[in-house]
Amino acid sequence: MLVGDRGRFGIEYELDAVEPEAPAGPRRMSGHIRWWCGGESVGHYHLATSIEDVAVAVGRIAARADGRLHADLMDLPAAELVRVVTDALFTDNERTEEQIDADGRLYWPFFVGPRTESFDPWDVFVVEDQAAARLIWCRIGHPEVREFRLRRGEFDDVLRMFLDGLLFHGR
Question: What is the pLDDT of residues 29-51, one digit of tens each?
Fold first, then answer.
């Protein structure tokens, strides 16, 4: 199933066949998933993964949608935005606990990669202003940073459609 637009931003997933419920617990929703960013596949679709784990991560990402507006970050070149956000979130540079907390509140909304097994090799970012959004992605450890312009709110609309579809089609 594809939610969104493969040429812009979309989420493609396939749920595995339902296994009979085991006596020890509920059935798990497993399958295959990837994101489409500006027509490029992001995620290891060939790997079977827990769609539930991705959905939990997507729910957390969607909950931070209101924090993606930032005019100064919109003006930065894509590679610089990646550096600023990842440094603020992941670099240990002798900041105080208060600075780390403040940086987290400011920068986590822009870091939108699900960080699940299928997506581990990629970092994905979204930043918006009043008129538009920038979807930025890169493979970790590779110098090339890719970017695609979206409508403001388009990324989060697709996330919500994905989550709504799982609720309807899930087990």
Answer: 889 999 999 999 999 998 888 99
